[in-house]
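wait is this the right file?? whatever heres the structure
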């Protein structure tokens, strides 16, 4: 009797709280009470579209498939206004009963009705989702996700003529969340085809950065030429998991024996490679908070043995160490080669926030030893002197012995606040790296745009040479087509001038100043007045690269996309990657010299093939 009474009361309470309301066609909404609503799909459709409002907290969406828990993901469900929509693909669930059990965030301490917790009526079914670019800051020739948030490139490998690029991806919003491996491929390193995400969050956690290799000798037992991925499962702890693919990286099977590697402290971003010299697999793992890279070996990609740790107290140590890479690189103009250990860190970069440092040294398959400078210290070296270059790692198995890297073109300081909506973040252009010896006797990375970038050149819109440059700016038109996207190929000679400044500007008064100072051997980039800069106080900045040469001549390749500028020293001595958000595209290139006359030896401006 007692039991029955309780049951009746409980049923009554549920009925009082459960309140079905009309949703869009094919969607029924039932509010269960404070913070809890059921969204039922009652029609066939390709997508259910969720409205997003970026400034609200995440709602938790539990998908029940035929009454059973299928997956959990997080969406900033719009509460006051819809900034944009994100699609959830229903194709895999056709002919099943689908229910989203939604827990909205408790934004206030007082009790609120679930009906006011989201724009429920804006949740709708659709057979299409328009990924057409409608944003003015969306890059024209850099890789971006079709929609949603992207950070680190990872898991890249080259196989059968195809460059595979995976990336840290949130398919359900343009801020960091739901870490998934997004996937794109290219046959020319320039044009990218978007694929369905390759590895999704699972019971062990979301899917953080990692790497892929082609297992040519079937050492792992998943088949000859299987693609093996190692990534960090980020749940309560960060543990390392394996997945394998027999369709060249299109789909992956999660290894049931996961995790393959655990530690009792934060470690992530496993980066593995086949070491020809030792006949073993090597793995680098970022021991993030300990600011060191752990080095492991394995015969089969599943059992890993710790060999050593590199980096304690060395290089920049201000932030956490992340996304390692290790490779042997040739020294230009010699028969020599050296090992280079790439270490991304955040914060602690030379201009604030995230950046990539590297160490040159020797590696015997077990231990990495960094070279020292004349004073006996291990020097801190930076891969890129812009503010927007992070998580850079290389492609596994790049052809012709090339070492090709790509980075995330943003900075953790403000990546989630940049003025884009449907998507956030792009990759840098691909770059080929090797080493060169500078006048100080040290080996540095030589970074050039991958040769494939030459194919971007369309029409030469301007050509000039042998022009004297003085105090009065010499002006040249940038291409007006396609929002001014272009490549500038330029050689100047400062001669007697103290400095030469290259300015990109528009009619709105936005400008970027790039100044070459031969006496100091520096090249700086000032974006303090580059356009929209006020979305974050760390964005306006002046950054400076050492040119690593004692010369009055300076050749550059400058790539301008809709919201980025990459400046490459033509010989690869330095590179600066910076985001810019001009109010209208830059229209004019001006050159001026201070303290004497300089000369413009060559100027070629190319529009970009699209
Ligand atoms: C670097 C990083 C990695 C991690 C990933 C998560 O940007 O923090 O260490 O795997 O992003 O998205």
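ok assuming it is, sequence goes like this
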């Amino acid at each position: 009797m007692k039991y029955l009474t309780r049951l009746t009361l409980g049923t009554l309470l549920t009925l009082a709280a459960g309140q079905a309301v009309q949703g869009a066609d094919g969607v029924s909404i039932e509010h269960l009470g404070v913070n809890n609503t059921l969204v039922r799909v009652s029609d066939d459709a390709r997508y259910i579209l969720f409205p997003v409002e970026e400034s609200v907290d995440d709602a938790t969406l539990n998908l029940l498939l035929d009454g059973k828990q299928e997956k959990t993901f997080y969406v900033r469900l719009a509460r006051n206004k819809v900034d944009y929509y994100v699609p959830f693909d229903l194709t895999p669930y056709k002919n099943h009963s689908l229910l989203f059990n939604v827990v909205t965030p408790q934004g206030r301490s007082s009790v609120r009705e679930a009906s006011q917790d989201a724009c429920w009526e804006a949740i709708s079914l659709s057979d299409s989702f328009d990924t057409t670019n409608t944003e003015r800051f969306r890059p024209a020739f850099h890789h971006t996700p079709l929609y949603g948030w992207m950070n680190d490139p990872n898991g890249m490998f080259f196989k059968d003529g195809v460059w595979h690029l995976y990336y840290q991806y949130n398919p359900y919003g343009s801020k960091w969340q739901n870490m998934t491996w997004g996937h794109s491929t290219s046959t020319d390193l320039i044009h990218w085809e978007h694929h369905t995400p390759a590895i999704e969050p699972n019971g062990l956690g979301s899917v953080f950065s990692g790497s892929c290799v082609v297992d040519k000798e079937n050492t792992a037992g998943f088949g000859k030429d299987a693609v093996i991925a190692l990534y960090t499962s980020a749940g309560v702890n960060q543990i390392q998991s394996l997945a394998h693919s027999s369709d060249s990286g299109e789909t992956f099977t999660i290894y049931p024996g996961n995790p393959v590697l655990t530690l009792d402290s934060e470690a992530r971003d496993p980066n593995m490679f086949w070491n020809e010299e030792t006949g073993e697999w090597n793995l680098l793992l970022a021991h993030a908070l300990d600011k060191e890279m752990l080095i492991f070996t394995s015969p089969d990609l599943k059992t890993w043995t710790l060999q050593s740790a590199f980096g304690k107290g060395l290089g920049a140590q201000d932030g956490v160490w992340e996304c390692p890479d290790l490779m042997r690189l040739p020294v230009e103009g010699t028969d020599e080669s050296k090992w280079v250990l790439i270490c991304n860190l955040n914060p602690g970069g030379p201009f604030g926030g995230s950046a990539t440092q590297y160490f040159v040294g020797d590696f015997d398959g077990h231990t990495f030893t960094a070279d020292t400078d004349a004073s006996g210290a291990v020097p801190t070296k930076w891969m890129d002197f812009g503010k927007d270059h992070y998580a850079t790692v290389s492609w596994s198995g790049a052809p012709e012995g090339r070492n090709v890297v790509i980075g995330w073109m943003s900075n953790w300081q403000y990546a989630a606040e940049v003025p884009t909506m449907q998507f956030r973040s792009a990759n840098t252009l691909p770059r080929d790296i090797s080493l060169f010896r500078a006048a100080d006797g040290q080996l540095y990375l030589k970074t050039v745009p991958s040769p494939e970038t030459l194919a971007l050149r369309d029409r030469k819109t301007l050509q000039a040479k042998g022009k004297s440059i003085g105090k009065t700016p010499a002006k040249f038109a940038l291409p007006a087509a396609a929002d001014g996207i272009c490549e500038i190929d330029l050689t100047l000679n400062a001669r007697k001038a103290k400095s030469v400044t290259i300015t990109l500007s528009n009619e709105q008064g936005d400008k970027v100043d790039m100044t070459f100072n031969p006496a100091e051997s520096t090249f700086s980039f000032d974006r303090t007045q580059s356009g929209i800069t006020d979305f974050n106080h760390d964005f306006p900045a002046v950054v400076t690269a050492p040119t690593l040469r004692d010369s009055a001549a300076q050749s550059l390749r400058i790539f301008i996309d809709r919201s980025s500028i990459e400046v490459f020293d033509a010989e690869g001595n330095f590179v600066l990657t910076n985001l810019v958000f001009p109010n209208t595209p830059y229209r004019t290139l001006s050159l001026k010299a201070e303290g004497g006359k300089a000369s413009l030896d060559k100027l070629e401006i190319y529009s970009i093939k699209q």
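The pocket of beta-D-fructofuranose is lined by residues 151-152, 168, 179, 208-209, 232, 268-269, 322-323, 391 (CB under 6 Å). so i think its the right one actually
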